[in-house]
Design goal:
By secondary structure, the protein is α/β, with parallel strands linked by helices. Helix content is about 45%, strand content about 10%. The N and C termini lie far apart (about 95 Å).
């Protein structure tokens, strides 16, 4: 051929095998150094042969054909062939030095044809040519269960769909997904290799495993056969036998990804503001009132915290205004719970903004009941409704002040504060009365500004900026002493800032940064005020080891099960002490931390996570389950990185997590056990045997390293020892002689003495 050097050994290698077993890809990987992705391997296959003319056309291909093996300069020429059995390939077999017989790891029929079809054909045209058996696509041995591979196969591969004309008629197994029974083990390929008397190797074009190694041993097999015919060639003296191939260890499986549902804390708090569930404070701006919750506002705003914790009864003065003047709705309105004229006009003028107004009115008989309320508050009387225990009002953490008390305030935003009994409609449309704290605001604070202030305090955001009068809002924030809202307005709406941060993307980044800072502050304050202090709590939970206070509106807004329990016709809806059997105080506090802050408590560890997982599953809180799973897995990884053994703990968590629908944590435990399966078998085999049969079957099927690799590696080490023993040069044993004891018996001094002794005995 062209460009051949006279001192080179030319080796012709013919590659044969069934259709679509990977012959052409293997040749391209060696001759052209082609490295393809999985997507390319599944979409760009065209049944053809690799032209031998490429050695003459492309210089790079010719240069890659030259290689030095065991000190011999070799030029390897690869001949590709069609996989059809009825084709005439005698032109390819002519003057061949070695034959590379290929089959697919995922096609048992191709391995059978190697012995039944291809081996007789090779021996017919090449009686003495060495044969190398190669199993292609050995990456499918561990990839056939991979979801990414299966999706690519279903969507793009013509073989997987079975619609290729050359494949679907003769290989129907390509028309369905790969099954575990289709994957051939290395032992099966090695058995066929022994039957035909050929070395056995495996390759993968995707991972490039064994590509160069196979062709190096192909060259060795050809040179050994040539040395037997040309024994006088000294350059072939040091050529070795085809070397043993180290078994391919599949890569460690990827850990399952933990997906946490997106947060809904802001939406829940906004719905809490709009729904007016169990409100206990009303802000009056003129004749328009806005109902809110003391617990939320006290945790968010320091000025409101001081206002609500003010001792009104001690320093309060009854103002000259009557209680009816502080009513949220007009006293002339005959229907209870309807908005007054000013409120209706405000709603009509602001169609884009939803203004949350209080639907309460002051009770007409509150003057007669004030004295009774005072006496009940002093004695801490206990009432019973629907066979549920009502906790004494003295145990509530709010201010216990009788109705009708008012205090005039010397504040820029708040004129006065009073305690009144109001009537309104509950969620079932029935008239109910409740004690409300009435806060009268200054006239400069408009209803729209107050509504936006409440929205910001509940959610940390202002919503649509086009519907907001920023001047009024900034003035209200300054009067009510809300520094976060002032910073929010100044950063986003000042002309200087708008000139600096040109573009909508920059404003979004600034808003997200400010919102995150405010949200973190709210979380810390909610922990301190609502959880640690229990301020303005209105319900108690009787747990296994004590009482725990909480706030009904927050629980109902954050948990649908709690909302159904307190809103429905259950006895818990009217009780102030709710029995929660089977739940400890520590576990319930972890639940409250999530409901109040949308975060997981730091006390959740792998050793105590089952209680909170059970409670979260019981209350239908998927985000809490996801957060607990994420933290427990992070702790497991952290402990594993420090060298601590976590497999036993994962074994104990597996089945309880499956029971409580913590599927992601259960999948991770299965992955962790499967990766460390061999260590677990040595350390704690009893725990492994106690698992459910389905889990045991999964671990046996997905253990890493797999069983076939361990067997192959043991076989490889045994073969290496045998080959080392065979190739070891024989030892020459040198015999050290001593003049007194060695040599012929007739010529030693000791033998003469023995002869004289024997003669003397015979004469006797």
């Amino acid at each position: 051929m062209d460009n051949e050097q006279p001192h080179q050994e030319h080796v012709k290698c013919v590659v044969v095998g069934d259709t679509a077993v990977g012959k052409t890809r293997l040749i391209c990987a060696r001759a052209c150094n082609a490295r393809l992705t999985l997507n390319q391997l599944l979409t760009t296959h065209i049944p053809t042969v690799w032209a031998i003319d490429q050695y003459r056309i492309y210089k790079e291909v010719l240069e890659r054909s030259c290689e030095v093996v065991d000190g011999v300069n070799v030029s390897l020429r690869l001949w590709d062939t069609f996989g059809d059995h009825d084709k005439d390939r005698r032109f390819a077999y002519g003057r061949s030095d070695v034959v590379l017989l290929c089959f697919s790891i995922a096609n048992p029929m191709s391995l059978r044809n190697c012995k039944v079809v291809w081996y007789p054909e090779i021996r017919r045209f090449c009686p003495s040519t060495p044969i190398i058996l190669v199993g292609c696509k050995n990456d499918l041995r561990y990839m056939y269960r991979d979801e990414q591979f299966l999706s690519l196969c279903r969507d793009r591969s013509p073989f997987f769909r079975g619609n290729h004309p050359c494949v679907s008629s003769r290989f129907p197994e390509f028309g369905r997904p790969l099954r575990e029974s289709d994957i051939l083990s290395p032992e099966q390929g090695r058995t066929v290799a022994k039957e035909i008397g050929a070395p056995y190797y495996e390759t993968s074009v995707l991972t490039h495993f064994g590509v160069n190694e196979v062709f190096e041993n192909v060259i060795r097999a050809a040179l050994l056969s040539r040395r037997q015919q040309r024994f006088w060639m000294t350059n072939l003296k040091h050529v070795q036998r085809p070397l043993l191939q180290v078994p391919f260890c599949p890569p460690e499986p990827r850990p399952p990804q933990v997906i946490v549902p997106p947060p809904q804390f802001e939406d829940d708090m906004l719905s809490l503001l709009h729904s007016q569930m169990y409100t206990d404070v009303i802000f009056l701006t003129g004749k328009v009132g806005f109902a809110a919750h003391k617990s939320v506002l006290s945790a968010v705003c320091n000025s409101l915290y001081k206002l609500f914790t003010l001792d009104i009864a001690a320093e309060g003065t009854l103002g000259g205004r009557s209680a009816s003047d502080s009513s949220v709705v007009s006293s002339s309105d005959s229907s209870v719970g309807n908005f007054n004229t000013d409120t209706e006009q405000l709603l009509t003028e602001s169609p884009h903004s939803v203004i949350t107004c209080a639907s309460f009115c002051l009770s007409r008989s509150h003057h007669n009941t004030n004295q009774n309320n005072v006496s009940e508050a002093r004695h801490g009387s206990v009432r019973r409704r629907s066979s549920c225990q009502i906790h004494p009002e003295s145990l509530t953490h709010g201010t216990n002040v009788p109705t009708g008390v008012r205090r005039i305030l010397d504040h820029r935003a708040y004129q006065c504060i009073s305690i009144e009994r109001c009537e309104g409609l509950d969620h079932r449309g029935r008239v109910t009365s409740s004690i409300q704290t009435i806060v009268t605001l200054a006239n400069v604070i408009t209803p729209s500004a107050m509504q936006n202030c409440l929205r910001f305090l509940y959610t940390g955001d202002l919503g649509h900026k086009m519907c907001i009068n920023m001047t009024e809002l900034l003035e209200a924030a300054e009067l009510m002493d809300i520094p976060e809202l002032q910073t929010f307005d100044q950063e986003l709406c000042s002309p200087v800032q708008l000139m600096i941060t040109s573009g909508q993307h920059s404003q979004k980044d600034i808003r997200a940064d400010l919102h995150e800072k405010f949200a973190q502050k709210v979380r810390n304050r909610m922990r301190e005020v609502c959880l640690h202090q229990g301020l303005f709590s209105d319900v108690y939970f009787q747990l296994e080891d004590g009482l725990c206070c909480a706030h009904k509106p927050i629980l109902m807004a954050r948990c649908d099960v709690m909302a159904a329990m307190f809103r429905g016709d259950f006895r818990e809806s009217s009780a102030k002490v709710v029995h929660f059997p089977g739940v400890t105080k520590c576990c319930f506090q972890q639940l409250l931390v999530y409901l109040y802050t949308d975060e997981i408590d730091d006390t959740v560890t792998p050793s105590n996570c089952l209680d909170i997982l059970e409670l979260a599953n019981r209350l239908c809180l998927p985000r809490l389950v996801g957060l607990v799973e994420q933290k427990v897995i992070h702790d497991f990884i952290k402990l594993s990185n420090t060298g601590k053994d976590t497999t036993e703990h994962a074994l104990r968590l597996l089945e309880p997590c499956q029971m409580h629908n913590a599927d992601q944590l259960a999948d991770w435990c299965l992955y962790h056990i499967a990766v460390n399966y061999n260590d677990i078998c040595r350390k704690t085999p009893k725990l492994l045997r106690n698992l459910h049969p389905e889990n045991q079957a999964y671990l046996n099927r997905n253990r890493w390293p797999p069983v076939w690799y361990l067997k192959e590696y043991d076989y490889y080490e045994r073969c290496v020892r045998e080959r080392q023993w065979q190739e070891k040069p024989p030892k020459v044993f040198k015999r050290h002689r001593n003049n007194s004891t060695s040599g012929c018996l007739c010529f030693t001094g000791r033998s003469i003495d023995i002869i004289f002794c024997l003669a003397f005995v015979m004469n006797k």
